[in-house]
Design a protein that fits this description.
The complex is a heterodimer of chains A (about 280) and B (about 270). By secondary structure, chain A is of the alpha/beta class. Chain A has a single domain, classed as Carbon-nitrogen hydrolase (Nitrilase/N-carbamoyl-D-aminoacid amidohydrolase), CATH 3.60.110. Helix content of chain A is about 30%, strand content about 25%. With about 270 residues, chain B is of the alpha/beta class. The longest helix of chain B is centred in the middle third of the chain and has 23 residues, at about 105-125. Chain B is globular.
Chain lengths: ~280, ~270
């Protein structure tokens, strides 16, 4: 299958303009015969929304934009980030997977970073689950940014038999490094390598770029194959558009050598966790 | 603490370009003293948006600081940016002839605010964004004039310590004599930052990095060989200058109040 990664710099709050940009890039992906295009976290709205959350929110079941996207998804599968108003006044940092004219899945960010420069839990409700779902290309799981850094979240998707884990991100760069990017970019790649190899899944990470209130989103979107090898990476810092052919046969190849999936014991992990949880409740 | 100057250059020129575009500016204006920080800001601005879009204003008080003025002129010449030389002596002297003082700090602050006033005037005349020149060391210590040299539209150097600015300056090609001369607020001839603060920048930046970036405790910093007296003094300077890094506090009355719970991004709609 052919995957397109749209490493964009959304305009903060301007859903209309961002939507037009989405349409342009979807066209571009289609003309390159891509099967799937992925946008970053909150790609329709921008990240540092604060009190703009309610006015940028969308209910996918009622939204005209989603009606259009559903139509387009008959030709190409689309993953994008948006603010979801699930019920009146209940807002989520969400990601949708659209394909074959339908919304296949909506993931609501569970781990909302709220420390230092981050304040997501002040403005968003917390998602409550991780679930992998069937797509035309295999079982897929969605994660949003900080979700991915919690290996429990990755483990749940792995245990559900995910073949592809897609991470939408709006990760600001931080920390000095001696390389051509921030120190934090290395952390994301480290996690990408680890999770892809030890879950024998494709790991597709789409980050954004651009500045918001002085924070620079560090780009560097990447794809790792099921053996933990980086097979593609976008530019650090600049807008970019990656098209990459991935061979789903590599899943079988990897799982012939690496038996983590076969040997996974979620019931043992579950019982052990259950004990931990009970012990922690005092 | 070590930076990769090539990466920082790319980041900061991109920042200047993007911020100007977002706020519909094509040009930039900055005060050029001939010191390290303003020279580095000039180099970055020129690289970011092109020499023809940058105006440096050189604002000496009379004939003092001739050497600094010549350094500033050298930067203008190297970069090929536009420049304007404005002697602030008449404005300053008029004011102090009516309200005389011998306090060098009061005089220096007044000069810094006169320069700010000229920069923002040129900002309107030329439709140019004022580029700041304050580094992280002086912002943390409050070693600057509030609403004076600390005022700007955007401040590209604000997360770089003085010694890191020097690294960046070396990489950008700032002339050697500017890189190596003793940093000075320029309040009076012979004033140097290091003499006034009582510790050299190398040490100060190392200490601030441990305190601020790594959040080390006092006793840990002491064990690195810094004296308790110095640590306490620097800590006090940081604490007592917090007001310089914030907008004035507003007492809360209504349900929704600026500075408390009226929470919008700076780059609103950009």
């Amino acid at each position: 299958m052919k995957v397109a990664l749209a490493q964009t710099a959304p305009i903060l709050q301007d859903v209309k303009k961002n939507f037009i940009r989405h349409l342009e890039l979807i066209e571009k992906a289609k003309s390159s015969q891509a099967d799937l295009i992925i946008f970053p976290e909150l790609s329709l709205t921008g990240y540092t929304l604060k009190d703009l959350v309610p006015e940028t929110a969308i209910n996918p079941n009622k939204s005209e934009l989603f009606a259009k996207l559903k139509l387009i998804s008959k030709d190409i599968s689309i993953v994008l980030g948006f603010v979801e108003e699930k019920e009146r006044g209940n807002f989520f940092n969400a990601a949708a997977y659209l394909s074959k004219g339908k919304i296949l899945h909506i993931h609501r960010k569970v781990f909302l970073p709220t420390y230092g420069m981050f304040e997501e839990a002040k403005f968003f409700s917390q998602g409550k689950s991780f679930s992998a779902f069937q797509t035309p290309f295999g079982k897929t799981g969605l994660l949003i940014c900080y979700d991915f850094l919690n290996y429990g979240a990755d483990y749940v998707l792995f245990s559900q038999g995910a073949d592809i884990i897609i991470v939408l991100s709006a990760a600001p760069g931080r920390g000095m490094s001696q390389g051509q990017t921030y120190a934090s970019s290395h952390m994301w790649e480290l996690m990408g390598e680890t999770i892809s190899r030890f879950s024998t899944t494709f790991l597709i990470y789409c980050n954004r770029v651009g500045f918001e209130d002085g924070k620079s989103f560090a780009g560097g979107s990447f794809i790792y194959n099921p053996e933990g090898k980086q097979i593609s990476r976008a530019s650090y810092m600049d807008e970019d558009f990656l098209i990459k052919e991935i061979d789903l046969g590599e899943l079988n190849q990897a799982r012939k050598k690496l038996f983590y999936k076969r040997d996974n014991k979620p019931e043992v992990i579950w019982r052990s966790l259950d004990k931990v949880i009970k012990k922690n409740e005092d | 603490m070590k930076i990769n100057p090539a990466f920082v250059e790319k980041l900061l020129t991109k920042f200047i370009r993007e911020e100007l575009t977002k706020f519909h500016f094509e040009k930039a204006v900055l005060g050029l003293s001939g010191g390290l920080d303003s020279s580095v800001s000039a180099f970055l601005s020129s690289k970011a948006i092109g020499a023809k879009n940058v105006t440096a204003i050189i604002m000496p008080y009379g004939e003092s600081f001739k050497k600094d003025v010549s350094h500033a002129e050298k930067v203008v010449e190297i970069l090929g940016i536009k420049s304007e030389k404005i002697n602030i002596k008449p404005m300053i002297d008029t004011y102090f002839s009516k309200y005389p003082t011998q306090d060098k700090i009061i005089k220096g602050n007044k000069m810094a605010r006169e320069r700010m006033s000229i920069l923002f005037d040129f900002s309107s005349r030329k439709k140019a964004m004022v580029i700041g020149t304050s580094n992280k060391t002086e912002l943390l210590l409050g070693y600057g004039t509030i609403y004076g040299d600390m005022a700007s539209g955007i401040n590209p150097l604000g997360d770089l310590y003085k010694t890191q600015v020097r690294e960046l300056g070396k990489h950008l090609g700032v002339p050697e004599e500017i890189l190596t001369k003793a940093p000075s607020a320029g309040f009076w001839p012979g004033q140097t930052d290091e003499k006034e603060i009582g510790i050299d920048y190398d040490k100060m930046d190392k200490m601030l990095y441990q305190m601020v970036d790594l959040r080390k405790q006092k006793k840990e910093i002491k064990s690195m060989g810094f004296s308790e007296k110095t640590i306490d003094r620097i800590t006090e300077m940081i604490k007592n200058s917090e007001f310089k890094r914030k907008l004035p506090t507003i007492p809360k009355i209504a349900e929704r109040t600026i500075g408390h719970d009226f929470l919008f991004p700076y780059d609103w709609g950009k």
